[in-house]
Amino acid sequence: TECILEPLSLPESPGGSAAVETSSDVPCIFCKECYILAEQNQLLKHMIIEHKLVIADVKLVADFRRYILYWKKRFTEQPITDFCSVIRTNSEAPLEEQDNYFLLCDVLPEDRLLREQLQQKRLREILEQQQQERYDTSFHSMCMFCDQEFTGNRSVLLNHMAREHAFNIGLPDNIVNCYEFLAVLQNKLDNLQCLYCEKVFRDKNTLKDHMRKKQHRRINAKNKEYDRFYIINYLEFGKSWEEVQSEDDRELLDNLEEDWSDWEEHPMCAVCLFCEQQADTTEKLYLHMQVILVLNIISLIHYACFLPSLLGLNFYQQVKLVNFIRREIHHCRCYNCQEKFQLKTELISHMEETKHVTFLPARSTWDQPQYYFPTYENDTLLCTLSDSEDVTPEDSSEDVPVVSEDTSNLKALKQSSILNQLL
């Protein structure tokens, strides 16, 4: 076979390109016999019996008519043996009883390229059709299960049937040639045929009861007749929706078996309360803050933040305290005396000299709901706080009695209840 060094061009019929588009007849590759497109199998049978030509995987040819026209032209230019493999039957019989059949398949690079070009052309046409249907507002159709009429976009009807009648044929954006699809389904119902098991019933009521009780109010996914109405069947050359989905499933299973031994986890970096220094452990952060403040920084503040059991702070109080300190430092304000500074370095110097860093302000200043919200996004320091179940907040040391309202007289209760004030 010859190499294809440039893109192939689809041939025109003897009557010109217009004749190709308007005619629906498919000619034999070798003779003047013609068949309508719906009689494709009759043409294939004719070429096998009369001309000994076998075309492999015909179902994968996106445009059968253009495929036949292309090879009709090529076979007039070169001998058939330049393109086809020769299969000899009855090879052990006498020579006069032997037959040579010619196999045309996509092992031939020219044939495969032609099939791929036809598939890409069909995919472009299908996507254009789907895009047109997605934005079409002139859609008009009746529901197949009730007398309701729908106009506007096709999605209105499809969503109605899925929601009200539990009949779901898929997302509207996955469907193409929707008018034809609905017509095929309606024709089956008119012929009293179940859409799923495809049995025929004696009347409409029996069919409805059957589809409802057997949960057959759906289409049969194995019926190849419906494949042309779903975009997934046009996406990959030579693959059906079942093959595409099974490949997706295999990829998921393969991913589960992947070796994660080379996984490198990036350490979480916590940022100092008083500057931009980062550390990947709280111990390193302690050391840094000791150095930067040049004093015994393992003080009340840091015990409060990292060792809550010393002050009896629960997890949420720790969160509020850290967010409070971050907010005050961000505003260059001392969290003890509330003095404000222009630079953060001036603030730190002030807190060192006055020892304000070692004193925790009154709880009422920081134990407030507003400090539940982080001052900085992704503040890793909040993730390092311990959530000790042994910590008991000071406020919870006393038993608080709960007195229920008297419900013996509901009418009087509705008039005097404290809930009225909330309303």
UniProtKB/TrEMBL annotation:
<feature type="domain" description="C2H2-type">
    <location>
        <begin position="192"/>
        <end position="221"/>
    </location>
</feature>
<keyword id="KW-1133">Transmembrane helix</keyword>
<dbReference type="GO" id="GO:0008270">
    <property type="term" value="F:zinc ion binding"/>
</dbReference>
<keyword id="KW-0472">Membrane</keyword>
<dbReference type="Pfam" id="PF12756">
    <property type="entry name" value="zf-C2H2_2"/>
</dbReference>
<feature type="transmembrane region" description="Helical">
    <location>
        <begin position="291"/>
        <end position="316"/>
    </location>
</feature>
<dbReference type="InterPro" id="IPR036236">
    <property type="entry name" value="Znf_C2H2_sf"/>
</dbReference>
<keyword id="KW-0862">Zinc</keyword>
<dbReference type="InterPro" id="IPR041661">
    <property type="entry name" value="ZN622/Rei1/Reh1_Znf-C2H2"/>
</dbReference>
<keyword id="KW-0479">Metal-binding</keyword>
<dbReference type="InterPro" id="IPR013087">
    <property type="entry name" value="Znf_C2H2_type"/>
</dbReference>
<keyword id="KW-0863">Zinc-finger</keyword>
<comment type="similarity">
    <text>Belongs to the ZNF277 family.</text>
</comment>
<keyword id="KW-0812">Transmembrane</keyword>
<protein>
    <submittedName>
        <fullName>Zinc finger protein 277</fullName>
    </submittedName>
</protein>
<dbReference type="InterPro" id="IPR040048">
    <property type="entry name" value="ZNF277"/>
</dbReference>
